[in-house]
Structure formats: structure tokens, C-alpha cells
Amino acid sequence: MPTGPDIKNPTPVLWPDEPLGPDDEDKLNRGLFVSMIAERLNAAVLGQASTVFGLVGPWGSGKTSLLSRLRSQLDETWKVVVFSPWATSDVNSLQIEFLSALTSIFDETQQPNAKEKVRKYSRMCTSLLKIVPVAGEALSSAVQEAVEVATAEKPWREQFEQACDVFCDLGYKVLIIADDIDRLDSEEVLSLLKVVRLLGRFPNVHYLIAYDQTTIEDLLKFRGLATKSSDFMEKIVQYPFEVPPLAAVVQRRLLTETIDELIARHGITLDAQAADRLSELVAVIAPALLTPRAQSRFREQVLAFAEMLSFAEVDAIDYVALSFIRVFHHEVYEQIAGWKVALQSGKVPLGFLDSSELSHEDWHNRIRPLVETENDVSLIMAILSGLFPGIQSQGLIFYRDHPLALSNDLYFQRYFIMGIADDDVEDRIIANAITRIVDNDVDQSDVIRFAEIIDGDDLDLAALALEKGAKFRGSHSSGSPKLVEFLIDRHNANSDGQEGFASPLRALRRWLDSEIMLALTESALTVDRLKSIMAAPDILLFATRSIASNRLSSRSPENVVADLGVYFLDILENELLSALSFGISLAYLVDTCWWFTGGDKGDERVSDIGTRIANVYQRSDLEKVIVGFVIQEDWVGSDGLSPELRFQEASFRRLFGPEATRELDGKLLWYGASKIDTEDLSLGNRLKLARAKVAEVARN
């Protein structure tokens, strides 16, 4: 992949893995969730019995950041104390730290005896913590006797009531926040729950405990106390609040921001094929980045390790794909070097000369022991199928040969030397919109909303909506001309802007191509009908992409191949000048006609047309023809698109044989042999480049 100049910025600040503050941007769209929790806590009244709230979410889901935002939304009747149980060294230290946090709320001048009353009660309870069960168990006779001894000085109830009076007189509510209790070991978790249950359940004192339910479940199973943490924690936590997962559009947006920063920092440019490959990779890995920490971790790894590389020596898309496997599926990453030959060839050697094809099931069996779930297997196979030609997945990504590829032995080693959103798209809207479009009910509200999203300014949201639409249609096998028309309208409405790798136009074309091919194959759509609703240049690009992806092949229905072939050959032979004026790509047209006539093994209809053009066309028309072989190649970079002119010599030779080329050379004017600036996009410069190339081909 060509790259721009080496314009690396200074090394970015290290990722601290710190929670966001209350004033930081809410990129995850969790403001409503935080407000809901704050409203529930603020509903607690003075004098109310102690309540335990829970913030429940997996590791990395942003619980600590949510706590920070929540504190800023509590009303003035609250005093917040943060208790960090994981910062203590043992169970005794945990109890002392809790007592210190609990008594820190008192003002010595206004409540001089408050701390002492609580400490007396706490000293008695500390001895009881070793014998009192955590939740729901009756005391044995031996335990009952120990309780009586521990409380002989003054009855437990009397000391508890004295401590309660202290908290009743506070005049405010106390919220004790215990974050990351899943960092504790099993004994410490049990001790904390005992402390909360026995030592701290005073009026006006409430708790907010943040934890990962799966981890707590594993810890409790280790102690043999519960089969489900949810059953156990229900006895402790009255109000559990589940952290919502990241919305799909947020997953895409965060990943796109990471890749945009990589491109900008390293001056990376992408040609059209590379932008397509990157678009497909984003569609596959974005849904796998489930938590904010996963997104931040991936961003840090991608950007940090990129400082060790030159993107003139490795392919940026392969680097991003391999980085995902390295960060999140390291056991698979460690096997890639050993699997290299199999990944390249799709075969496993049997002895010195023989080999055996590796099936989809064979690859599944290789990968499954190295990952946690079946979904992980599908994800890894999809990513690997974009990196290597010897493995295919049943999803979006397929391998394309490209410069500096990881699969190429020349470059392989280089990659390893390093050692609940308001703006998401509901599936229901998409499913209903597509169903209505197929039924020709295009004025229905969901259809209008779907079109507005695709045509809107939020490019990530548009791309996500298109990918969801294509996925929904994947299970519906009937071709629909109405859906083809809808997608063509969306394409026409959005085809004027620049196209980066994240452009929704790339997702739109992938879906449109599949719908056109499906409708043609089932005879729900004819080539004549397609000509009436789609511009010739766009039909040509559809055919070109379909041939490249093998969606259109010699195995396609004969009538589809024949009708498309006749259509393109007729343009080349009879309507060429008109088609060129409408912006058709002559190089693509020639190559497509060449394919439809059998390629190298086919007939000579394409070159025969070229001979007639060379003999019959006047000089001015011939100049239009040769300029048609000059294409503008747009390189995608951090500063937008960088255009460059290139002459499609292979396509030119397919249309014009040696004799026809010499005929052209004799008819055309010569514009001099000065150096041609390929960044000058003017028509005159295009003609100058084309004329020089024709002369060069004629001489060789």
C-alpha cells in the first residue's frame, strides 16, 4: 500500500486506564442511565433504613466512570464516602478500612461522642464477624454461646441502638461506595459482605457496590456457598443496576476514531481496494469490542505498536487485523506462524510430496480449543480469511491480493518482529422498512426513517444501518426489484462526496451488488429493466465488482451472462462516444467486455471493435477514446483524497492490437516529450499522458 511522507507526531500520552470524570464527554451515551440511578438514590429520605444498591457489569464496562458521573448528580442531602476494599492487604485491614470510612463522616465539634459509640459497637461486631454467617443461615448452639460471651459487657441490641441514634441525628444521608469488589479474593469478598450486613446497616447509611457478577459467582462457587451469584447477592443487594452494553453505533464510532488517528499519525494513504478491505474489517471487529476498556485497550495497542513500524513496509489493514487477534486472542496469535503454510495454501502437508485440503470444519477444530466461544471461532475465521487465501469464512471478508501482505513470505516476519444510545438503529425499524420496500409500501414511516439514516450526516450510523440491512436480507432469498430501486436511489443521493474507508457508500455498494445479482439470477429483474433505473457507468461498476468478487462467474445463469455481455459490447461498439461523455470508465468497459468474451481464451470481438475504432474514428474522437484510458486514482489519507493520474495500459492493449495501435499513433498529434505531472488532473494533461503512452506502446 503506498504511503505518504513520514509525518509521525510525538509519542502520545500513555493510556492511564483511569475512569472518566463527570465533566468528560459522554461518548458512550450513558447519561440517561446515570440519571436514572441518581433519581432512584435521591428518592431515599432522611431516617430511611440502610439500603444496598449494586452497579453490575463486566470487567471494563465503565463502572468506575459511571460512579464518577453519578456522584455529580446526587443532591445536597448526600455525603459520599469511597471505600476501597481491594486496597487493603488482608481481612483485618479490610474491616479497619471500612470502620475508618464509616466514622470519617462525623464532625468532632458537633458530634463529639459519635465516633466512640460507633467504635464500641464495631469492636464487639468485629469479633462476631468470624462466627456470624453471611446471609440467611441460622446460628448453631455453639455460635449462639460465642455471641453471648462477646456481648456480655453490654447487650448487642443496646449498643446497636446507641449507634443508630448517632446516625439518625446526622441530618444528611451517607452513601458508601465500594468499587471493584470483584478484585478481592473469596475470603475478602465474604468478609466485606459480612461487614456490610452486620457492621454498617444503620439508618441514613446506604451502600453502592460495584462488581462483576460473573467474577463474584466464580468466587462464591470456590467457597461452595452458592451456585448463582445472583441468588446470593439478592440477599445483600436490594437494587442492582445492570450497566448497559455499548450500542453498536458507539462500537463502530470508537473503532473508527482509533483507525482515523492511526492513519493521521502515520500519513497512511489507502487506495480504493484498501479502503474496501478496511471497511469490511471494521464491520467485522467493531461488534467484538464490547466494553469501553476493550476499545481503549485496542486503541492503545494499535497506536503504541505502530510507532515501531514503517507503513511503507507493512500493510496497515493487515496490521490492524493482526493486532486485534494479538490483543484479544493471543493463543491464536501464537499459532499463526506455525500455521503459515496452511493459511497460505489451504492445505496441510502429508509426507514429502502429498498434501490434504483443509475444510471449514478442519479450521474450526484447530481454532476452537484456543478460544472461549463458538462466536469467537467465527470471528477469528472471518479475520483470517481477509489475511490469508487458504481459509474462507462464510461472512463478509474475503482475501484480496495486495502489496506488503501478511500472507506474503517476503513480508510475513515484519509483522511479528514487534515481539443505550439515542442514535443507534433499531433492528425492528430496519426489518420493517425492508419488508415494506419489498411490498412496494415505500411511503411508510420506517422506510422514510431508514432512508433518512442512510442519507444523513452520521456516516457511521449510515454504514451500520446498511450492514444491518444486508444482514437481515441474508436470510431472505427472494430477489426484489423494488429493493434494488430503493438502494439505487440511496446511491444516487450520496455519490457526490469523497469516500474514505468508513464511507457508507462502500457498505451500500456491497449490498446493492448482491441484491442486483440475486434479482437477475431469479429473473425478478432483467438487464433491460436495470438499464432503465441505473446509469450505465454504475451498471459497469456493478459488473466489475461482481466479477472481482466471483459473484458473477461462468457458473452464473447463462441468460444473465449473455444479456450483460451483449449490453456492454453494444456500448463499446455503437455508443462509445456517448458513454464516454456520461463518465463511463473505458478501461473497466474494455476489461468487462474482454471477460464476457472469454478473456485470453475467448474470441477477438473486443480487438475487432478496437480495429474499427482506429480505422474509422476521426482524430478528435480518437483523442476522447485514448483519454478514456487515463484514470484518476484517489489515495485516501488523513488529509482527505490525494488524486493521481494513471494510464491503463493493459486495458488499452486488449482493445487495440499492434496494428490498430500503430494506426492510432499515425493519426494522433504529438504533444512533445516533456515530463508529465501525474497530479495535474486537467483534460489537456490527461490527453498529453495518453498520447505519450500510445506512442510508447506503438514502439514496443
From TrEMBL:
Name recorded for this polypeptide: P-loop ATPase
SUPFAM superfamilies: P-loop containing nucleoside triphosphate hydrolases
PANTHER family: NTPASE KAP FAMILY P-LOOP DOMAIN-CONTAINING PROTEIN 1, NTPASE, KAP FAMILY P-LOOP DOMAIN-CONTAINING 1
Domain KAP NTPase residues, every copy: 34-305
Region span, Disordered: 1-21
One Pfam family, short name: KAP_NTPase
Organism this protein belongs to: Mycolicibacterium neoaurum (Mycobacterium neoaurum)
